[in-house]
Amino acid sequence: MTAPLRRFPDVQRALVSILGPLVDGRAGTETPSDLEKKMPFIRVLRTGGPSDRVNDYATVDVDVFAATYSAAEPLAERIRQLLTGPPLRAGAAILDRISCESAPVELPWAPGVRRFGATYLVVSRRHTSI
Questions:
Q1: Alpha-carbon gap, residue 105 to 70, rounded angstroms
Q2: Are 119 and 61 contacting, i.e. CB atoms less than 8 angstroms apart?
Q3: Interval 92-102 mean pLDDT
Q4: Which residues, in sequence order, are bridge partners of residue 28?
Q5: H-helix or E-strand containing 47?
Q6: Which pLDDT belongs to residue 127?
Q7: How far apart are CA 80 and CA 62, in angstroms?
Q8: 81 within 8 A of 91, measured Cβ to Cβ
Q9: Which of 75, 92, 11, 67 is nearest to 44 (CA)?
Q10: pTM > 0.85: yes or no
Q11: Any alpha helices (H) in 1-130, and if so which ranges?
Q12: Distance between CA atoms of residues 26 and 22, nearest Å
Protein backbone atom coordinates (compact mmCIF):
# COMPACT_ATOMS: atom_id res chain seq x y z
CA MET A 1 0.00 0.00 0.00
CA THR A 2 1.42 3.36 -1.00
CA ALA A 3 1.17 6.51 1.06
CA PRO A 4 -1.32 9.17 -0.07
CA LEU A 5 0.12 11.76 -2.44
CA ARG A 6 1.03 15.02 -0.75
CA ARG A 7 0.77 17.77 -3.30
CA PHE A 8 0.53 21.52 -3.42
CA PRO A 9 -2.96 22.88 -3.95
CA ASP A 10 -4.15 24.12 -7.32
CA VAL A 11 -3.98 27.77 -6.31
CA GLN A 12 -6.00 28.95 -9.30
CA ARG A 13 -8.92 26.65 -8.49
CA ALA A 14 -8.72 27.48 -4.79
CA LEU A 15 -8.89 31.21 -5.48
CA VAL A 16 -11.73 30.81 -7.98
CA SER A 17 -13.63 28.93 -5.26
CA ILE A 18 -12.92 31.64 -2.69
CA LEU A 19 -13.63 34.62 -4.97
CA GLY A 20 -16.57 33.21 -6.95
CA PRO A 21 -19.19 34.04 -4.30
CA LEU A 22 -18.28 37.74 -4.59
CA VAL A 23 -19.70 37.73 -8.15
CA ASP A 24 -22.37 35.00 -7.97
CA GLY A 25 -19.97 32.39 -9.31
CA ARG A 26 -18.76 34.42 -12.30
CA ALA A 27 -15.09 33.61 -11.78
CA GLY A 28 -12.68 31.37 -13.63
CA THR A 29 -9.22 30.84 -15.06
CA GLU A 30 -10.20 31.93 -18.56
CA THR A 31 -12.04 34.98 -19.83
CA PRO A 32 -15.34 33.84 -21.36
CA SER A 33 -16.01 34.66 -25.01
CA ASP A 34 -19.24 36.39 -23.94
CA LEU A 35 -17.53 38.43 -21.19
CA GLU A 36 -19.83 41.45 -21.60
CA LYS A 37 -22.82 39.28 -20.61
CA LYS A 38 -21.05 37.83 -17.54
CA MET A 39 -19.72 40.97 -15.88
CA PRO A 40 -18.63 41.50 -13.26
CA PHE A 41 -16.20 38.64 -13.82
CA ILE A 42 -13.05 37.64 -11.92
CA ARG A 43 -10.19 35.89 -13.72
CA VAL A 44 -7.45 34.11 -11.74
CA LEU A 45 -4.21 33.14 -13.47
CA ARG A 46 -1.06 31.70 -11.95
CA THR A 47 1.92 33.23 -13.71
CA GLY A 48 4.77 31.45 -11.92
CA GLY A 49 6.53 31.15 -8.61
CA PRO A 50 8.91 28.71 -6.91
CA SER A 51 8.38 26.04 -4.29
CA ASP A 52 10.46 24.24 -1.71
CA ARG A 53 9.88 21.02 0.23
CA VAL A 54 7.14 22.58 2.34
CA ASN A 55 5.70 25.65 0.65
CA ASP A 56 4.54 26.77 -2.76
CA TYR A 57 5.02 30.47 -3.56
CA ALA A 58 2.60 31.15 -6.39
CA THR A 59 2.56 34.44 -8.26
CA VAL A 60 -1.06 35.00 -9.25
CA ASP A 61 -2.76 37.69 -11.33
CA VAL A 62 -6.35 38.51 -10.42
CA ASP A 63 -8.31 40.56 -12.95
CA VAL A 64 -11.71 42.13 -12.40
CA PHE A 65 -13.86 42.92 -15.44
CA ALA A 66 -16.92 45.18 -15.16
CA ALA A 67 -18.89 47.62 -17.29
CA THR A 68 -17.96 50.70 -15.26
CA TYR A 69 -15.13 52.04 -13.14
CA SER A 70 -17.50 52.35 -10.18
CA ALA A 71 -18.22 48.61 -10.40
CA ALA A 72 -14.67 47.37 -11.13
CA GLU A 73 -12.51 49.37 -8.72
CA PRO A 74 -14.42 48.64 -5.48
CA LEU A 75 -14.59 44.93 -6.35
CA ALA A 76 -10.83 44.82 -6.99
CA GLU A 77 -10.23 46.49 -3.63
CA ARG A 78 -12.66 44.13 -1.86
CA ILE A 79 -10.69 41.20 -3.30
CA ARG A 80 -7.43 42.71 -2.06
CA GLN A 81 -8.81 43.11 1.45
CA LEU A 82 -10.15 39.53 1.49
CA LEU A 83 -6.98 37.94 0.14
CA THR A 84 -4.57 39.83 2.39
CA GLY A 85 -6.54 39.07 5.56
CA PRO A 86 -6.42 35.90 7.67
CA PRO A 87 -5.39 32.57 6.09
CA LEU A 88 -7.97 31.19 3.66
CA ARG A 89 -9.14 27.66 3.00
CA ALA A 90 -10.81 26.08 -0.02
CA GLY A 91 -11.51 22.41 0.67
CA ALA A 92 -8.20 20.77 1.59
CA ALA A 93 -6.21 23.74 0.25
CA ILE A 94 -4.84 26.05 2.92
CA LEU A 95 -3.56 29.40 1.69
CA ASP A 96 -1.36 30.40 4.61
CA ARG A 97 -0.34 33.87 3.52
CA ILE A 98 -1.20 36.15 0.64
CA SER A 99 0.55 39.42 -0.01
CA CYS A 100 -0.33 41.98 -2.64
CA GLU A 101 2.73 42.42 -4.85
CA SER A 102 1.08 44.95 -7.17
CA ALA A 103 -2.10 46.74 -6.06
CA PRO A 104 -5.17 46.86 -8.29
CA VAL A 105 -4.66 49.15 -11.26
CA GLU A 106 -6.79 49.82 -14.29
CA LEU A 107 -5.50 48.06 -17.39
CA PRO A 108 -6.67 48.32 -21.00
CA TRP A 109 -9.10 45.74 -22.35
CA ALA A 110 -11.90 46.65 -24.77
CA PRO A 111 -14.53 49.34 -25.29
CA GLY A 112 -17.28 48.95 -22.70
CA VAL A 113 -15.14 46.76 -20.42
CA ARG A 114 -13.20 48.15 -17.47
CA ARG A 115 -10.42 45.88 -16.19
CA PHE A 116 -8.53 46.11 -12.91
CA GLY A 117 -5.57 43.80 -12.36
CA ALA A 118 -3.52 43.00 -9.27
CA THR A 119 -0.71 40.56 -8.58
CA TYR A 120 -0.50 38.46 -5.42
CA LEU A 121 2.04 36.13 -3.84
CA VAL A 122 0.12 33.13 -2.47
CA VAL A 123 1.93 30.86 -0.02
CA SER A 124 0.42 27.43 0.47
CA ARG A 125 1.56 24.10 1.86
CA ARG A 126 1.27 20.54 0.76
CA HIS A 127 -1.86 18.61 1.62
CA THR A 128 -2.86 14.99 1.33
CA SER A 129 -5.00 14.08 -1.66
CA ILE A 130 -6.70 10.73 -2.00
A1: 13
A2: yes
A3: 94
A4: 43
A5: strand 41-48
A6: 74
A7: 9
A8: no
A9: 11
A10: yes
A11: 11-19, 69-83
A12: 8
